[in-house]
Amino acid sequence: MAxxxxxxxxxxxxxxxxxxxxxxxFAIGFVWPFLQGIYLSFCKFKTTxxxxxxxxxxxxxxxxxxxxQYSFGYTAITAVVSLVLINVIAFMIAYLLTQSIKGSNLxxxxxxxxxxxxxIVLGYIWSMIFDGILAAYSTSILLNTTYGFWGxxxxxxxxxxxYMMIIYIAGLQAVPEDMLEAAKIDGADKWQxxxxxxxxxxxxxxxxxxxxxLTNGFKLFDPNLALTAGLPFIIQPDGSTINxxxxxALNIYNTFYTAGAGTRxxxxxxxxxxxxxxAGLGLAQxxxxxxxxxxx
Length: 296
What we know:
The protein is 72% helix and 3% strand. By secondary structure, the protein is mainly alpha-helical. The strands form 2 sheets. It has a two-stranded antiparallel sheet. Strands 3-4 form a two-stranded antiparallel sheet. α4 (66-97) runs parallel beside α7, α4 packs antiparallel against α10 and α10 (203-219) runs antiparallel to α13. It is globular and about 70 Å long.
């Protein structure tokens, strides 16, 4: 007992040696830049050293910006479509690969491998693939909004389905065998077992996968930049342009780096609004799906 107490005392005394560096790195790498970014969203600046506080004007400009409004709607549609397709296809593949199919381990590896490729590389690879296919129609993915939209959806599905599949496989393998046997004894067919037993027990995995696919859909940047760069564009009556395949993250980037130094405060305000949007949607989705999880 004395030895155990001494170990506990030593653990409490020296725990800061292990926790301290992690907390310091988190504060320096995330908390401080995040707080500084919030402050800069209320400022007009070219560099952070000459920021001039102007109040909420940047937020008004950000919300009134037609390109930001368009990117918000476009991003929402893209995120919802990709969320449904990614999770449905990933669950179907995971369910099939847990049915004692020959070579299932090989299939798991093959489906997961696209997740290891970076977004920029994926964007350029699929850009060449799509333009090669569309060359027969004398067009390009950069010239058609519909092609650009479905190109992004296909790219996102190809990259993320394998990752979500692994999570679903883990959830399916955790379904209690006694429940499956009881359903079989009661005369339930495969569809009834799937919807009444399997899916309710896999809800924790569904919660995680939906959260990841939803937030990834809204945060998509590098594949969007590499695949379409927001093109094509339409010209507004006032002379401004709207990129028709530009998602929110790319819109913020373009506002900050290509629209001139005078708009950097507006871009920072967009970034703060973007954070609030993604965080709010993510938390709402977590609360919604967690209520439907089965307590085992």
